[in-house]
Known about the structure:
alpha/beta, 4-stranded parallel β-sheet, two-stranded antiparallel sheet, Rossmann fold
Amino acid sequence: MIAVYLDVDGVLSPLPAFLVPPESAWKGRWDREDIAGFRDVAFHPAMIGALNQAVTRPGVAPRWLTSWEEHAPGGFAPATGLAGRTWPVLDGVIGDAPGDWWKLRAIRADVAATAPDAVVWADDELARQEESTRWLASLDIPTLALSPNEALGLTPVHVAQLAAFIDENTDR
Length: 172
């Protein structure tokens, strides 16, 4: 099983959401939604479609790893068309503390509990979290870290890397 951990803000939706990323590689229309008064998001339908194609394949187990917590499957997924309504949500944002990133605690526990064959972690903060990137690199399984520029979110190159990684690690 390939576990794919996804953040929302800065990954699936650029920050700030009211700006269309000027140098985005996604061409054409960006959509915007107000998620049940929780937050405004911008998303590109082509990115959502490409992600759906990659993560809904057999043997791929996507998970939400975002401060949105239950708002991700309950609000973001239905509003954008991302096939994430039933994905597990890793929580813990309330216990966040400086030097003890809640997302690292949550993913460590999930990887220990589920024993995936490969891991993808997409989070705009990942490149700034040295302990997290060291932990990911220390795993004895294939890993892919995607840390997009928060103002752009995932690009077509990132999504192609994700799809290629899944292709390479399916049926391990």
